Amino acid sequence: MQQSSNLSRFLKIGLGSTAISLIVMAGAAQAQQAQTTKPATENAAGEVQLNTINIKSVNPQEITSRPAPVSTISKTEIKLNGREKLDTVLRSTPGVFTSINGSNPGVAVNIRGFEGSGRVNMMIDGAPQNFRTTAHDAQGYSYIDPNLLSSVDITRGAITTEGGSGLAGSVNFKTLGVDDVIMDGKDKGVLGRVSWGSNGVGFSEMLAGAARINEIGIVAALSRRDSNDYKNGYGDIVEKTGQELTSGLFKTEFGFAEDHKLTLGGVIYNNKYGTWQPGYSGGATVYDLLMQNRTFTANYKYNPTENDLVDLAVNTYFNSTKLSYTDGNGSFVGREIKTESVGLSVSNTSRFSVNDLYIDWKYGAEYNHDNTGGVNVGVNPIDSTSDRSAVFTEVEWAYNNLQVLTGVRYDYYNLENDADNVKNSDGRLNPKVTVAYNVTDWLQPYVTYAHSMRAPTLQETLLGGIAHAGGGRMKGNPNLVPEKQRGWEFGLNIAQDGILNAEDKLRIKANYFTMRVEDYITAAFTQNQFVNVEGTSEVRGFEVDARYDAGFAYGGIGYTHSKSDLPAQQAGLGSGQYLPEDIVSLSAGARFLDRKLETGILYQHVSSGQGVDYAGTYKSPSYDLVDIFATYKFNENVDLSFKVTNLFDEKYTPALSTYGSGQGRTFVVATQFQF
User: Fold this and answer.
1) Residue 538 contacts by C-beta under 8 Å, 6 or more apart in sequence?
2) Prediction pTM value
3) Which of 26, 280, 282, 453 counts the most CB atoms within 10 A of its CB?
4) Residue 469 pLDDT > 90, yes or no?
5) Cα 286 to Cα 150, 242, 265, 329, 484, distances in angstroms
């Protein structure tokens, strides 16, 4: 009865905000017509003259920054700190961390202590990356070559529009486009990167070309990386930490007049790497693996310049990920695990105003279908399907200095396995309300209350088989219910220019959050299955992203403080998810020689935290890392950079690591050219 009451109340909120938007839109159109239209008149010759109707173009209120915990990692930051491994730049972002396996080249993003099994919706160009395996590792990696990235968009917390299937937020890895390769004022271009690093990093090369002919743009890129096992701070080799990566992409952009745009794209990823883990009867179990990831997208946009009520976006995708055990000394040789995903999202944004009230209304739907398959898959599901769908509406109301956002998203899922006659389905309405106020032109506090949910995965619901010799049989749990989250956030945005000189800029985003989670899913070894943990758990924390740039010098600080009483994920059927209590990332740099030379330092402190192993939980040790770098830009076309990572050869194991100690001191030299 309580759930039915909540559903009714939230449905009324969502329908109410939508109805108000429709009424206001109709009123705005009617008032606009009344103000701009007069009766037709007759001239001296007896001819009827029709009056001109003026359509008013309405833009949403401009604010200093979005009242939400959002971040964008630029291609400059990726080139400097994430080209060898994306974990480095992600772990420097407030509220964001990663689960690391030294031998796995994938990225497993953790937001606010939530990781794996879709708790964070990881995407490549908007296509969800739903490949997962149940093993001694993170339950979900994304496989993308950093050399092919243009930016990374991160949203922490509940999302009530497209991409909102995650419990704690989303990460979208956006790949290179035509405009990333062609320089301003040109119709064709080439972008190339070459780097070499010591301590196993080896060579990396990328070459991209693009051209624009009338309304058609084409871009293609090819990337290669060949690395070896690295040494840790003790000088010991960490086995199976090299990779042999070949990747590429292509995109074609079609512009139809000024209002229509269609982009077709594909990203190809092939990586040969290995895995190493202690054997149960002495020695080690070693495998050679091949990871193949294919992402194809078709994105259509229609945004007529004379109609602010239409801003249509239709995005479709197909993703195929296959992991093959090609060689090794264990019984899994020949294993193949595969996931295919297909889906689409459709949304429209209508913008209009009534007097001083500006309204930005987004509404739409999305659908995703996953299918699992493979050979000798072990405990992982096969011939199983997952269907997820959602409808959403979100309205942003802006009146003078006040901004209010009301949104609601209804999520539904259905999991099936015909062979075992298993079916699990459920749905839930998730509302969100944000109130922000621009106290001055540089200061904006805000508060948000929001719900989110995370559906059980096929891997959790349909766990089965025997993990390894001597182990018990795993059991599925078709009675799993979705994880549910309710949370508050209190934030502050500061954006001010010209503080000490004419060109300096200060940007600060700070927030305190609390997230209460019900029905959290974890593995129960005593039952050999995944279960919902009864009761409510809480995660709370404080995040700060502060940056100052004076032109000739700059500095920044990223800080995350986190507390969690979530139930521990069981080692062997996933990995630990607890963030270290405090994570501090400092950066500082200066520009010389007409700003052609840039030098800087990066420092990160990771405090102790709660770890998870087969004996239970433990206190992980703290550590400090220092990197230095320098970049010289010969001209607008060519630059040369040099950096040293782990400058003091720190002996450490990265927090949330499932295998491998940290890489020791490493030297990297790189160049980029663009014509």
Assistant:
1) 514, 515, 516, 517, 564, 565
2) 0.90
3) 453
4) no
5) 35, 13, 36, 6, 39
